[in-house]
Amino acid sequence: MKSIDVIKKHFLESESIITIGTFDGVHKGHELVFKQIKNYTELLPLVITFKKSPKDVINNNEVRCIYDIKTKEKLISEFGIKEIISIDFDDTIKTLTAENFIELLKRHFKLKLLVIGEDATIGKDKIGKKNGLGNILKKYDCDLKTINIKKDDNEKISSSELKKLIEMGEIKTVNKNLSKDYFIQGKIIEGKKIGRELGYPTANLDYSKEIVIPQDGIYKTNSIFKSKKFLSITSIGNNPTFNEKIKTIETYIIDFNKNIYGENLKIIFKDYIRGQIKFENKEDLINQMNKDLKNVSEEN
Q1: CATH fourth-level superfamily of 3-158
Q2: pLDDT tens for the chain, residues 1 to 300
Q3: 181-299: what fold?
Q4: Structural domain boundaries of the chain?
Q5: Which of 161, 218, 224, 252 could cross-link with 266 by S-S, CB 3.0 to 4.6 Å?
Q6: Within 10 Å of residue 118's Cβ, how many Cβ atoms?
Q7: ∠ CA(36), CA(118), CA(4), 5° rounding?
Q8: Do domains 3-158 and 181-299 have the same CATH topology?
């Protein structure tokens, strides 16, 4: 369905406060926006989120996201926002002027207050706070509120920058900037059972191919299984000691002994431990895994 038709099929009965953006990762800057729109109890909060960044669509960039769409929607909903609409930045949206778009929001969502970042613009004519968006909104009996989405040191929080940090394995820095610690989730599938042979049976995660993945290496993690939290060690890579080619995400859950094939697992990343190493033999690998386990257990 075209994005403009997704919008047109909605008709809200109450006046709304709306924010628009990609909101990839749902970082602390986004958190400020969501908390702000939730504060206006007399208006219905609505989030319109693009499935991919408009800038990436315009530049035809094949870019992965921090979280897939369903995960992003769930994270946004945890701020108490029930009305979330995810759309593509397709031709029916990118050809609209700012005023066309505002008129659409007024007609279908009873827009009363628009909340965006200070530097954000709307429409193919790129209208924002500095070049007349407030005046356009007044024509439709609406107001504009802008929010400074920045860190304490006045540096802007950027989803693009956070994606680079994830790919570099800079987990602690990423977690300081996200509204919740960075995680990957999916179903557990059968692997080659190499970990079991080494005395470290691992859960092999079937993860979304739409998302960015941390750099290869070993990570301290928490695994959430059926709402229970377990300390774990997660390996990302292609098992170089065994000359494997396929990248996997495998987690050894400490003090856990259950068959969880086909079950959902959420892996919360806490810290980077070390890079992948190609060992000469299994014994050297097991010795290193023992050290990794001791390191993670003692830190906890």
Answers
A1: HUPs (3.40.50.620)
A2: 899 999 999 888 899 999 999 999 999 999 999 999 999 989 999 999 999 998 888 888 888 999 999 999 999 999 999 999 999 999 999 999 999 999 999 999 999 999 998 888 999 999 999 999 999 999 999 999 998 876 655 677 889 999 999 999 999 999 999 999 999 999 999 876 776 767 788 899 999 988 999 999 999 999 999 999 999 999 999 887 777 778 899 999 999 988 899 999 999 999 999 999 888 888 888 888 899 888 888 776
A3: Elongation Factor Tu (Ef-tu); domain 3 (2.40.30)
A4: 3-158, 181-299
A5: 224
A6: 13
A7: 80
A8: no
